[in-house]
Design goal:
Blueprint (H helix, E strand, L loop, with lengths): L5 E5 L7 H11 L3 E6 L5 H10 L4 E4 L7 H12 L5 E4 L6 H5 L7 H22 L8 E4 L15 H13 L1
Parallel strand pairs: 1-2, 1-4, 2-3, 4-5
Helix pairs in contact: 5-6
Length: about 170
């Protein structure tokens, strides 16, 4: 049902990643895949998965590195000229800001969590829209802690709530 559809999946880390499950499901129904990996440390874990899914594009993407996000969408534009599906399945907060509860989260840690986990979706959407010439679908992964208090979820609850809201807008 997705034969010929072009899907970008961001957030594959290993074969247990939600992003990997999405990529595998899209491939099983015919989509062409672009898969990203975080950095050279992650590459050896993600590359065999991308190869196994016959991903046409395999690109580095750390959304906190200037230019990497644009490079991914430039490569998609050059290779495919279009994009139909965007999957955002990334999140990050500094370890010290995850351990102390929301009230002890630093402003810098909160800002980093919001940038990587939420605003990166907005930046991806901005770059994806011109490639979604016939419309498309953008989705992001969230968690129950965005809607209900989960004591151990701390800073990520408000961050994921913001991500859900950004997706709606």
């Amino acid at each position: 049902i997705l034969k010929g559809a072009k899907a970008l999946v961001v957030g594959v880390a290993n074969d247990s990643s939600i992003a990997y499950g999405c990529a595998r499901a899209f491939r099983e129904v015919g989509a062409d895949l672009a898969i990203t990996y975080l950095n050279e440390k992650a590459r050896p874990y993600v590359e065999p998965l991308a190869r196994g899914l016959d991903a046409q594009l395999f690109l580095p993407l750390d959304v906190s590195v200037d230019g990497e996000l644009e490079a991914v969408f430039d490569a998609i534009g050059r290779q495919w000229g279009q994009l139909d599906i965007l999957v955002h399945s990334i999140a990050f907060a500094p370890k010290e800001d995850l351990q102390g509860g929301l009230l002890n989260c630093s402003a810098a840690g909160f800002a980093k969590a919001m940038d990587v986990s939420c605003h990166s979706f907005v930046r991806m959407a901005r770059l994806a829209v011109p490639l979604m010439k016939n419309g498309g679908t953008m989705m992001a992964m969230s968690y129950h802690g965005a809607n209900k208090v989960v004591p151990t979820y701390n800073v990520m609850g408000p961050v994921k709530a913001a991500l859900e809201c950004a997706c709606r807008y």
